[in-house]
Amino acid sequence: MEVSRDELARFFTTVLPHLNEVQKRVVAGAMAQGLGHGGKSAVADASGMSRNTVIKAEREVVAGIEPSDRQRALGGGDIKVEDKQPGLAEALDELVHPETRGNPMSYLRWTSKSTGKLADELVRQGFKITDDTVGRILKGLGYSLQAPSKQKEGTAHPDPRRPVPLPEQTGGRFREGGPAGDIRRHQKEGVGW
């Protein structure tokens, strides 16, 4: 059965957007192998992939590529910022150290400085870094970022402007001989203050 270039292009236009890098190579390699002579060029033209990628894909299919959760080869990906910029982790630790909180005997350390401010200071020192990377490095150094106090407490403080209840509104909570006057009256009149 012959496949026209238009049909092949329609196939790849439909299928490739749904696949990751490895899956695209497997489909392209299998199709190139199935088409036989001239299959690599036809697949490259129809799919928009480079011919070298299709050649590599066909080799992987012939060799028997194993299914994997990885999209890239082991060791692939970008090199960590702290490896590219020597002294970065030490500079960050020096910035955070004066503001470190926690028990010195405990492994838990945290900082109240924001990652954005730490990143800005490191940039002023000549490092290239973002606040997300600062957070990742701090976590690796054993730090925990301190949550804002309102988040830690969970509830807001009572309203300091709320009216003080009158003695008759307390339901008998005052004992005999206890305070019976209205504090607000004293504030208005300035008595005893």
Overall pLDDT confidence: 75
Distance between the termini: 103 Å
Supply Rg.
34 Å
Give the tally of β-strands: 3
* Helix content, binned percent: 40-55%
Helix-strand string: HHHHHHEEHHEHH
Q: Number of helix segments?
A: 10
Most strands sheet: 3 strands, mixed
Contiguous uncertain segments of 5+ residues: none
What percentage of the residues does DSSP assign to strands (E)?
under 5%
Shape category: elongated
Structural classification: mainly alpha
Which strands sit side by side, in order, in the main sheet? 1-2-3
Keywords:
mainly alpha, elongated, single chain, 10 helices, 193 residues, 3 strands
Give the structure's gist in a few sentences.
With 193 residues, the protein is mostly helical. The protein has helices spanning 5-15, 21-35, 39-47, 51-63, 81-84, 88-96, 115-124, 131-140, 149-153, 183-189; strands at 100-101, 109-111, 143-145. The protein has a 3-stranded mixed beta sheet with strand order 1-2-3.
Mind explaining what this structure looks like?
The protein is mainly alpha-helical and 193 residues long. Among the domains are: 5-63; 81-147, no CATH class. The protein is built from 10 helices and 3 strands. The protein has helices spanning 5-15, 21-35, 39-47, 51-63, 81-84, 88-96, 115-124, 131-140, 149-153, 183-189; strands at 100-101, 109-111, 143-145. A 3-stranded mixed β-sheet has the order 1-2-3.
